[in-house]
Amino acid sequence: MQIAPDAFFLDPHYKGSLQQQIQHIVSQGILAGRFNPGDKLPSSRKLSHHLGVSRITVTLAYGELLSDDYLCSRGRSGYFVSQSAPRRAVFEPTAQPDRPTIEWNRVIGQRYSSQVLPEKPSDWQNYPYRFIYGQADYTLFDHHNWRLCALQALGKKDFSDVTSDYYERDDPELVKFIALYTLPRRGIFARPEEILVTLGAQNALWLCAQILLTQRRTAAMENPGYPGLRAILEQTRCKLIQAQVDDEGIVYEGLPEGVDAVFATPSHHCPTNVTMPLERRQGLLDHARKNEYVIVEDDYEFEISFAKPPAPALKSLDSEGRVIYVGSFSKSLYPGLRLGYVVAPEPLIRELRALRATVLRHPPGQIQRTVANFLSLGHYDALVARMSQAFANRRTVMRGAIAEHGLTVAQSDTAGGSSFWMRAPDDVDIEETAQRLRTLGVLIEPGHVFFDPKDAPRNFYRLAYSSVEASRIAEGIRLIASQF
Amino acid sequence: MQIAPDAFFLDPHYKGSLQQQIQHIVSQGILAGRFNPGDKLPSSRKLSHHLGVSRITVTLAYGELLSDDYLCSRGRSGYFVSQSAPRRAVFEPTAQPDRPTIEWNRVIGQRYSSQVLPEKPSDWQNYPYRFIYGQADYTLFDHHNWRLCALQALGKKDFSDVTSDYYERDDPELVKFIALYTLPRRGIFARPEEILVTLGAQNALWLCAQILLTQRRTAAMENPGYPGLRAILEQTRCKLIQAQVDDEGIVYEGLPEGVDAVFATPSHHCPTNVTMPLERRQGLLDHARKNEYVIVEDDYEFEISFAKPPAPALKSLDSEGRVIYVGSFSKSLYPGLRLGYVVAPEPLIRELRALRATVLRHPPGQIQRTVANFLSLGHYDALVARMSQAFANRRTVMRGAIAEHGLTVAQSDTAGGSSFWMRAPDDVDIEETAQRLRTLGVLIEPGHVFFDPKDAPRNFYRLAYSSVEASRIAEGIRLIASQF
Fold first, then answer.
1. Per the database entry, which stretches of residues form a coiled coil (chains A, B) (predicted)?
2. Burial B35-58 (b: 16+ CB within 10 A, else e)
3. CA separation (Å) from B195 to B12, B26, B176, B380?
4. Is A233 on the interface with B (CB under 8 A)?
5. Most buried among A111, A449, B235, B366, by the most CB within 10 A?
6. Is B166 an 8 Å CB contact of chain A?
């Protein structure tokens, strides 16, 4: 059969090149049985004319389809669907349930959908004044070298390293780099056996909580603190203590006896950005020793410290192995990367690794190797340096605009980071303000999600400068101030 | 200061090019404070002479370091460490715990390290007769197009899609492809809202188990069955029923009343490879309806059905939304990819998604988009076709060798797959045999890990042909037979 050019039409929403769209149409048509072995394809001349694309585009697409054995070529007579082309059975669904007849309320044994997480519109990038936190800045990212590092990770040389299924280890190149280069910068000495790679810091915190906590145990977290952690701890059904936070970080004196694990962000408190001073750190470690609890240190964003030199990690002061350290690469690269790690004594790493194997096996090998390459060649630190420079500039602009418009910063001075923690007048419900600001093109983050939901103030908010151009900050702040 | 060429030495174990090794030495030297701003680098002539590499290699490395601002160039006077080069504080660890003083036995609340998983030596690829299961075959993989698809996923155009942090959705391109092209081939009709992308099938099964089961609920799994699933179900502390398996798959008649969820592999039972006939499928669905349980269908490896046309999925017969379907791309691509999906009614997907957000947020965006591209251009099915052809050939060779040497196949004929399920004489402990075979360069998989550990026979084993060349199969089988 001769396939008519009319069988081809271009989808304006197709993601990819014209050549790829032709490959897509032909291969999926063959797989679905619309085009059959022996069918003759339109000549490149006819198809290019019909689609309004260049003839070479069609020829290149046919060439690719040839090498995947979808097509074969019979010299001057043209291209045909190959007799040995990949085929797939397509089954008509016997039953298409219009609506499920199962009572899911009864079937679902455990619910998780009630958790509160910071929300952002999915088209946040189209807002001009996007004071939202933790998204990659397209203009600062090093696309070129990141792609080169990914390509190398996908090369034939590294194939078995990145494709194998392994539970008992991680990418040795990445673990070596973390041990030799990353951790010393935080004052931490660790052997490879004491490091576990995780699917981002969230996954690291989750794994630690599963191992350390049970329904009969007690955990403490900072209030305000990281909402992703609150969801984790609530799901363990442990007893959860809300620890107070002041200008020096978590206040340990008020912790009740019998607490088993304290989760803290000493270097850069979430969300107020304060750094815990040395004296408080020593005090916290003494308190932990006396009361026999362990500390899970989430060292997120330590790299972005452009204002003051960074303090070493809490774990660097830990002589007992009492501090479990959580780090992340997603913050400085991009959140969709999902790569973090835990540093802890071996008996704990062994359990974390076993649990990780059941839950997800391991973080994808190609991501681990890509990051290892990017780190090893110095691109990572060059990127962090570029980000720090940009963030320092944005912060100066933002501080000026905040002062000019009389907004209130609710934190002491910090070493850096990518946001300000703000307080609106007491009678303001910031969620309503945030809704109104959206219509003006301004995105801010209401702060109640960081607090114990039983007792969350409504007038705090976070203003991040990691995804907003410096030139737009002043106008954005003016718009926010106009709402109070 | 002039940096002497002696500061450079090449590591013969370095993974990467000579140029990259020079970039690594310089960037890490600067970051660690061994080289300081203003220091002059060896000339490309001197350094190339010292290292025994070409001068252009050094020049290219210096050029890359220039663009990352590690170096600056002062015309004819050469290269210097940049005044604004990325720096990092390095802290001496205050405390280096020789051994942790924490009693980890007391601190660890929940243990996971006792699970039994199939083991393989980490250097399995160096064994000539590697009858092990589920590893990617280097010689069949389409490196070229895979890398192109990864490159495209990492392009500027897709940047925000792959880098964003999102909980509430997956890559729309991947989900669309699964709904429109992958599932119809299994006879399944599903809307995007009924699909959740997971970190491999293991992660999909784990998520389902968490939602469906509690300590008060009952699950059934096949015996023998998938050991990764057994670990998952044991960790939920539900009541676990071992369901019998015969030549037609799981035997549902023996299931006790009150079972809440049955986990099965109808299309391709693990590990015996049998396909459940239509009548048994209808019976299983009727039984599920009558006894009000849900079925989790693990449709692993359905694509590798070269011997007979594949049967549609059990879910295609499901008119109630009672079957939860688990699929995977890792089997045909490579296990280290970690990408699978769940198809289920929306109320369940909502809970699975919320749990996934707490545990790991989402599978990395760049992996999702790379697979979407590879699928969309037809490369995936071309790869599966190539694999099927190779596997069909290897299976023929293996069947012949097995017959010639009088080994016993413990399964009925199957539609395909990548392994034979085998039985050694009753008095053989196959683990001992496997140990002896290793010394002969032969890797086989003892079968006890697939059985309920309380009552596991010691004489079953699995012989996979997915990672062994056809030319080596006969000799490998001869060596195995020589042990009985």
1. none
2. beeebebbbbebbbebbebeeebb
3. 47, 47, 9, 20
4. no
5. B366
6. yes
Residue of chain B whose Cα is closest to the Cα of A308: B89
- The CA–CA distances, whole Å, from A447 to A128, A222, A424, A463 equal 21, 14, 10, 10
Q: Which residue of A has its CA nearest to B30?
A: A378
pLDDT of amino acid B99: 58
Question: In a 3-state reduction of DSSP, which class is residue A421?
Answer: strand
Classify A128 as helix, strand or coil: coil
- State what percent of residues in chain A have pLDDT above 70: 96
Phi, psi of B319 (to 5 degrees): -95, 0
Least confidently predicted of A363-367, B113-117, B375-379: B113-117
Residue with tokens 């539609």: B415
Query: What is the C-alpha separation between A411 and A392, in angstroms, rounded?
Result: 17
Q: What is the pLDDT of residue A185?
A: 84
Asked if pLDDT for residue A52 goes beyond 80, the answer is yes
Question: Rounded to the nearest 5°, which phi and psi values hold at A408?
Answer: -110, 120
What Cα–Cα distance (Å) separates residue A305 from each residue in A118, A318, A387, A419? 24, 22, 10, 12
pLDDT at A306 over 80: no
Strands of B305-457, DSSP E: 323-328, 340-343, 408-409, 419-423, 442-443, 445-446
User: In sequence order, what DSSP letters do the residues of A211-253 get, joined into one string?
Assistant: HH--TT-EEEEEES--HHHHHHHHHHT-EEEEEEEETTEE--T
Helices (H) and strands (E) in chain B, counts: 15, 16
Question: Which among B23, B86, B109 is the nearest to A377, CB-wise?
Answer: B23
Q: Which of A20-24, A408-412, B156-160 has the lowest mean pLDDT?
A: B156-160
The three-state secondary structure class of A87 is coil
Q: How far is A226 from chain B (nearest CA, A)?
A: 12
Closest CA to B165 of A362, A466, A293, A107: A466
Inter-CA distances, B208 with A364, A389, B184, B452, Å: 21, 45, 22, 21
Chain A: closest CA distance from residue B340 (Å)? 11
pLDDT tens for A427-480 read 999 999 999 999 999 999 999 999 999 999 999 999 999 999 999 999 999 999
Residue among B263, B288, B304, B286 nearest B395 (CA): B304
* Residues B23, A310: C-beta atoms closer than 8 Å: no
Query: Nearest 5°: phi and psi at A462?
Result: -115, 135
Domains and their CATH numbers in chain A: 5-81 (1.10.10.10), 124-139+383-481 (3.90.1150.10), 143-380 (3.40.640.10)
Of B460, B480, B304, B307, the closest CA to residue B401 belongs to B480
Q: How many residues does chain A have?
A: 484
The Cα-based distances of B159 to A18, A155, A335, B377 in angstroms read 20, 22, 12, 20
**Cβ neighbour number for residue B478 with a 10 Å cutoff:** 14
What are the Cα distances from residue A424, in Å, to A270, A348, A410, A435, A442? 18, 43, 9, 15, 16
CB atoms within 10 A of CB B144: 11
Q: Which amino acid is at A65?
A: L
- Answer yes or no: are the C-beta atoms of A295 and A261 closer than 8 Å: yes
Contact with chain B for residue A139, Cβ under 8 A = no
What is the spatial distance between Cα A138 and Cα A390, in angstroms, rounded to a whole number? 13
Structure tokens at A167: 């539970």
Considering only alpha carbons, which residue of chain B is nearest residue A352? B112
Q: Judge contact between B362 and B216, C-beta under 8 A.
A: no
pLDDT digits 0-9 by tens, A117-130: 666 787 888 899 99
Per-residue confidence band for A95, with pLDDT thresholds at 50, 70 and 90 = low
- Quote the tokens at residue B213: 């089961």
